[in-house]
## 1
Amino acid sequence: MGNELDELKERLIKEAEGIKSQADLLKFKEKFLSRKKGEISLLFKRMPTIPPEERAEFGKRINQLKQLGEKLLKEAEERIKGERKRKGLIESIPDPTLPGIPRKIGAIHPIARTSHEIEEIFLRMGYDIEEGPEVESEFYNFEALNIPEYHPAREEQDTFFIRKGILLRTHTSPVQIRSMKKRRPPIRIIAPGRVYRRDEPDPTHTPMFYQIEGLVVDRGINFAHLKGTLETFLKALFGEETRVRFRPSYFPFTEPSAEVDISCPICGGKDPECRVCGGTGWIEILGSGMVHPRVLEAGGIDPVEYSGFAFGLGVDRISMLRAQLPDTRYHYENRIEFLEQLK
Ligand code: PHE
């Protein structure tokens, strides 16, 4: 009997030491101290079978065991609580040796950057920046620019109409008219902004893109001024080695009109297999011309006294060219990985 009790005491101590969790605590309590089936409770039930002279001693020993069990249980409980608290505390103290959480800083979009660079060049040449609405009247977008109703550029296919007579501007040229109405010559302005055309998106088209318009009006402005200005600008943007070529063209709002090409900034005209210029050595970069007398009139300026030149360029195209993008739609996909490469 004595041995059995000694052995139980040893097991109590050993198992109490092994308590690691709340579940272990419950298991210990169940095994030894549960009122019905706990090992110690069962000993009490054996009392009547113990010889009367040993009963007092037996009773005393199992009471001691019960107290020991309860004490061990309580200690284990305290221990677990303490450990949990310590762990929680450690976790709540920030570790100053860990690297910080870097804040994401955005970058200027390649189109905005290209636009700003172009604006800078013209600001240095004494131009002002003008703006016009993206939702424009048919009058400013077409009529005032000498594009009559039957002109192919008026085809509804090319244009987003808001309602009759109101549309999303298809180019920045309406700002020419607005600027002439607002200012008196000499006028030297550029007008950057969004324009819209109902084009199916493809590698070189998106239904919204960016243009920069230029307009100069003064006494005695002639084609040489146009040529000199655009050459100066294009060399500033693409590099001094750039060659510039004027090709006769047609726009309803300029006469004469010219399309302007630059020597390929990628291969310089030396690679017959160049992917950017297609081996021709030239890249079309903008439209331009002398302001049509009817357009000056629509702007309230006397075409006998004054003359002017105008030009329009596509910012997306220039951005694409400089970054050698195979597809202009990358500009608008909001892919941070792409935009970060062009920083
Ligand atoms: N508005 C013309 C276009 O969008 C470009 C242009 C502007 C041409 C000014 C000549 C003069 O294609």
## 2
Amino acid sequence: MSTPASTFVLDDLFARDLPEMSVPWQAANAPAARLVVLNESLAGDLGLDPEWLRSPDGVGFLIGTSVPDGARPVAQAYAGHQFGGLVPRLGDGRALLLGEIVTDDGRRRDVHLKGSGATPFSRGGDGLAAVGPMLREYVISEAMHGLGIPTTRSLAVTATGQQVFRETPLPGAVLTRVASSHLRVGSFVYAALTRDVGLLRRLADHAIARHHPEAANAERPYLALFESVAAVQAELIARWMLVGFVHGVMNTDNMTISGETIDYGPCAFMDAFDPVTVFSSIDHAGRYAYGNQPAIAAWNLARFAETLLSLIDDDQDRAIELATEALGGFGPRYEAAWTTGMRAKLGLPTDVDEAAAGPLVTDLLELLAGSHVDYTSFFRSLGAAARGDAEPARGVFIDLAGFDAWLGRWRALSPDADAMDRVNPIYVPRNHLVEEALTAATNGDVEPFTRLVDVVTSPYEEREGLQRYAEPAPEDFGNYRTFCGT
Ligand code: AMP
Ligand code: MG
């Protein structure tokens, strides 16, 4: 396969449908650009030839400096609530939508850049990104994909050859990101704030056509759009919770309409189970703590619903009534997805009734929190316990008697060990491993990074020689802190 640039097309549907939210813009030049990592499998899915992507022309495409004929890169406008406070104009301050690739199966996917230079939305920022944080997004998003969790994907990270100034000078980079779209709750907040109902309706119709086409046939299409987004977000947040993922910055501009996870800034996987876990250095109040994520998703969806009121019904009171009722569906939907997932993690046969399963889950989480148990490795070791070897699971509890009592109740339900191994990952991008890989890559050695990507993209399959990837951080790793907007 080869990809003559002339045969592949970057469409500009977003820019055509929503010119008011699209500022035509160009990526910054990077004469000494060098590819750091390329996702060959994703390239193949997009119909792009990896060999061509590695060529000077291909690298030019990956950083947006040479785009196919007819492409029209834009910076997208959006608003957002940051830590609860409305910012009416955020937008792509260091990003660009190059355009959309429509693959042979008819799926439309955004090709998007992060770190491609200042835009009219930069608000004093430099528009740039550093190698470390872009590789961080790459490895964590690809791990999420490997876990089967909806997410934006990472096609490549390219070092620009230029320095980015943070606390220290760092090597600059561009991430090439692929997503089913970059529509966010914040996109709707932006459109609603313009008070141009025509624009808002066009945005909603664009979102329905791309992500929730069944809503078009509903009696109230825009209410159905809201319900569909609430449903995919309920499923998504449940998936995060089940693997111990903390997003870290669930602002409304970082919540997608598609239901994909987006914006891997200060995110991290929790080690010891604790609902109040926070990694982000700026999240002092714990707004985006692990255990708060479902409530924050509901809060964000309420902001989304507000933007749609004028489309839902001409009578404002009636619109509020309908939206409130629809929003009320989020909690039960989330609970159902999470409960189903927890039952699967425990390998419970389907005939076990909720009266037994519910308290079993609640009691286990209390035991995990009480003994500061490593979340990921515990659930994996529980598979071994279902096979008869309970020692690895038992050994991590301070309250041994409490755990033994729980173990007896659980085993009496005949858990299915093989089913458990299919849903309890053995390898997640653990914070100490991510840091180690990023430090090496920033210093020029990308091998630990590519190895980590390889391990975490097949998270359920135990492999020889990878024991250190399955273990919690050593004690001396200390409290982990992550940073935003780096
Ligand atoms: P984020 O926290 O990455 O979701 O970004 C929030 C907002 O800040 C978005 O509008 C970004 O485009 C913008 N932003 C983040 N970092 C930079 C930067 N280095 N230069 C310009 N804008 C930025
Ligand atoms: Mg963002």
## 3
Amino acid sequence: MKIQEADAKRLLVAQGLPVPPWEVARTPEEVRAAADRSFAAGAEQVVVKAQVLVGGRGKAGGVKLAANADEAERIGREILGMEIKGITVRKVLVAAAADIVREFYLAAVLDRAARKVLLMGSAEGGVEIEQVAAERPEAIVRVHAHPIAGLLDWQARQMAFALGLAGHLKEAVGIAKGLVAAMIANDADLVEINPLAIVREKHASEGVIERLVCLDAKVSLDDSALARHAGLEDLRDLDEEDPTDRAARAEGISFIKLDGTIGCMVNGAGLAMTTMDLVKRAGGEPANFLDIGGGARADKVAAAMRLILEDPNVEAILVNIFGGITRGDEVAHGLIEARAMQSREVPMVVRIVGTNAEEAGRLLREARFETAASLDDAARKAVAAARSAQGVRA
Ligand code: GDP
Ligand code: MN
């Protein structure tokens, strides 16, 4: 689950990382009020940043500076409602603009192969890190955190020196360790700071100083671990969740949309993948991955069918159920119920084996469903049905 920059920054602050203060605004008037407060506190400029769950906001015109409250309000009006990569901006972050001296990249990611948290840094921050990784992989420094002790002091120092941050050693070490701590404390898959920046600040007492701060934050949390952390589920941004994904989550169905034409309804992730493979082998393309899980009742089957039918690309549906805890007759009832509510006619091939398969077969035959004895047979029939559906329209 991706979370917004402002929420990600809160998780960083909780680990003691230096993040300049910010406010979140939802209207141009709120942007103005936040900017007013920032200017009153001594800011020379404010930055207004679109809060959307996609990267590259800067390039897309979603990050802008303003020199006074009028300009901040105008920029707020411009950015709020703007579309970035298909997502409408509904809120912005407002902060005193930093006077950036240098930008770095620093991130903690899960290295599944090594089964460790990997800290990655680059002195070429600000720009897209994927580009640096592709063109100059040696410009990215990698350090694996200790699996139990987290990032050790010497490892953090190694990263700091490698990035040329010897002049900010203590701060850099604190940030690197805090980043890994934030990753572990929240069961995150990714905690990214881009840019981590040396900024120039004017202080009444100390004069001009340079310090290291986190100007942007991107955090992705492990969905399966959300239950372990009070409050993290609340950070899900429902504004940006795809309606189909939301419905699937509410029903407890694992659903991933794909580009093909054969809708698949299966119980069990392994069986779902096998089913997709067999659809491909029969010459078709799966429209989705869908796992209704174990022990699904008729209403869940009907909900899964609605998810599949919402996809206009679906030309045929393949139902493949291996009855263990899941009862075949329950699934059959669900399919019959779902077809009664079906808004458009889509051919369906059903294969149910295992618990109560005979009863399921009887129900389905009575309801005139097309059934198949083997999975290969079912995949072939579904692909053929999709082809003839395409043929009819062509
Ligand atoms: P992203 O494009 O979605 O990654 O958004 P960022 O927050 O990283 O902003 C993109 C770029 O805008 C940064 O790399 C900076 O160059 C610039 N930027 C962001 N915040 C500030 C700021 O406070 N002051 C200045 N001068 N530039 C900023
Ligand atoms: Mn960024």
## 4
Amino acid sequence: MLLLALESSCDETSAAVVRDGRTVLSNIIASQIDVHAEYGGVVPELAARHHLRSCPVVVEQALNKAGVQLEHIDGMVVTRGPGLIGALLVGVSYAKAMAFARNIPLVGVHHIEGHILAPLLEHDIPFPYLALAVSGGHTHLYIVKQIGEYEPIGQTLDDAAGEAFDKVAKMCGLGYPGGVHIDRLASQGNPAAFSFPRPMLQHKGFNFSFSGIKTAVMTQLKRMDTAPEGDVLADLAASFQAAVVEVLHQKTLRAARAHNLKRIVVAGGVACNSGLRNAFAEDNANMEVFFPSPLLCADNAAMLAVAGEYYLQRGISADLDLNACSTWPLNQAGAELLDFASRT
Ligand code: KG4
Ligand code: ZN
């Protein structure tokens, strides 16, 4: 099938054309970072308005880049949730209108389902595998048994890792979103310069907590007479990043071992982090570890096509009453779609 995918859950509007759920012909991303940067975070109402403007533009660019016309598209996939409700509604409504006008099937999928299946666009990875979904809104471990079958085995009890990166960057006066700034500075700093906690590292089970590390950075900043800059700022970034990375890396390896899994996927925006990539490159505990390439780690539409193709091929599609969901557990999303297939 030739699928047109649309993503608008947060601050990136993206459209992609993907063949057979595996071959990416185009993947256009219109970022709103400049719009939200002056507010230090995403302003939901502004995000929705910008998605409305960008949807027709990214769709046209995606078709052009892929060298196909709308008439060639066999089906559509859109992010149904979770995310900012106004932002999601723009993408869902736009996709419904296009699918209706063209009389082609549409399926609404889970944003994190897109992230954790994204490496399948670049590698053949047999199921099952362990997925660490690590982004601005999620830090979750799932056993991916099959497309649509996801068993949650751990999650953050407070901040997501990406959220902690963004908040620490803000405290340090770095730009938004902060992950990439911390990452860049950390490469110049000493990760042992400051001693930050590794929350829940010794706990049994596979939950995470990142708000304590963030508070420890804040306490450190308050102790300093002046705002850190230069080498001290780089040391602070490196020490913070080392704490987050150690917890993510060690707990993920432990979870894979405990569940007897031989393959690990690390996905979502924080999977761009060079410290996290290096940690798994240096120690993979004899497992195969897959990171999507950076463009497929951040929010993008192509990642939705893996699940979209799978569901549409099985006759699983949405009616025109498809609605966006701001919150939507991943295991429930997959089960709902597969249950629909078994009933029809
Ligand atoms: O998946 P994503 O693009 O959007 C969400 O679904 O949230 O993830 C965005 C998050 C932000 O918190 C951003 O700061 C973080 O990913 N991020 C990074 C890096 N690049 C993006 N965090 C650490 N290091 C990076 N290089
Ligand atoms: Zn995301």
